[in-house]
């Protein structure tokens, strides 16, 4: 699972994207899931990072999903028309 930090604004976007891009290459799970539940302070750069991670996954033939989308980030995704590109991760199966 790819885990985003609590803060992801333009200032942190490039470093976060580098870290997540490396992680997508080594991720063996399917789909690759980005956990965004820790996000507290963010701007539209968080969406740009998620969309770039999605593109990296698709290039590798992997599906991509998002876990724990904060309501405000979901609103931004809908506003920019990209919500359908960031599908929610399926709930984990009970053991």
- Low-pLDDT parts are none
Rg over CA atoms, rounded to whole Å, is: 12 Å
Distance between the termini: 19 Å
**Mean of residue pLDDT?**
91
Record field, number of beta strands: 5
Per DSSP, what share of the residues sits in E-state strands of 2 or more residues? 5-15%
Enumerate how many helices there are, as a single number: 3
Please estimate the helix content.
40-55%
Order of helices and strands: EEHEEHEH
**Overall 3D shape:** globular
Structural class: alpha/beta
Main sheet record: 3 strands, parallel
Key descriptive features of the protein:
95 residues, alpha/beta, 3-stranded parallel beta sheet, two-stranded parallel sheet, 44% helix
Brief summary:
The chain is an alpha/beta fold and 95 residues long. The protein has helices spanning 10-26, 44-59, 71-79; strands at residues 2-3, 7-8, 32-35, 41-42, 64-67.
Question: Would you write up a description of this structure?
Answer:
The chain contains three helices and five strands. A three-stranded parallel β-sheet has the order 1-3-5. Strands 2-4 form a two-stranded parallel sheet.
